[in-house]
Amino acid sequence: MVLFGPFLWRQLEGRCSALLSVAPARSHLFGSTDPDFPTEKIADQLRPILRHITEPTVTDVLPALGHVNLACVPMPPGTGGTLVAFISTTQIESRYLHDLERKNIVAAVVDHAGTVVAGTNSKLAGTHLQAFRRPSTQPVDAHEPWS
Q1: Is residue 137 in some structural domain?
Q2: Of all helices (H) and strands (E), which one includes residue 100?
Q3: Can you name the residues that pair with 29 across neighbouring β-strands?
């Protein structure tokens, strides 16, 4: 993995904020937008999460790591642990949503569980869609006739 990691970082640069491999005993940073990225500290926080990942996965938003999603790809045994790309919600907002905000359009990127990953208002990140439901709003049953 050390051989192709730097090439992969060049492909992902601007799309993720960091790329590293995390194995049980070591970690390796391939690239980061933060020159002071605390690789070992982050790797120690990730190991309990990564232990349960057995197939390519994108995590829910992790506020403890700076509102990021992790794209995790487990490598075959003995080849370097798990490849982890940090996808920052602020990068998603700046890359895709700021133009909409300037046009007074409210938009959000929502994950599979209904949690806001990024939005034109960055304070929405991590909020579940149910938090936006108004008590006066009721679902419409398509089978009921209009009165």
Answers
A1: no
A2: helix 98-102
A3: 20
- Mean pLDDT over the full length of the chain: 80
Residue 42 lies in a domain: yes
Residue 68: phi and psi, rounded to 5, are -125, 155
Number of structural domains in the chain: 2
| In the block, residue with structure tokens 């700076």 | 66
Considering only residues 147 and 99, tell me which one the structure prediction assigns the higher pLDDT: 99
pLDDT per residue as tens digits for the range 43-102 = 999 999 888 888 998 887 777 777 788 899 998 877 768 999 998 877 777 777 778 877
Q: Please give the residue range of the domain that contains residue 42.
A: 5-88
Q: Are 110 and 80 contained in the same domain?
A: no
- Decide which of 56, 88, 120 is a domain's last residue: 88
Are 125 and 117 in contact by the 8 Å Cβ rule? The answer is yes
What DSSP letter does each residue of 23-54 carry, written as one string? -SS-EEEEEESSTT--HHHHHHHHHHHHTT--
Q: With beta carbons less than 8 A apart as the criterion, state whether 87 and 62 touch.
A: no
pLDDT for 147: 42
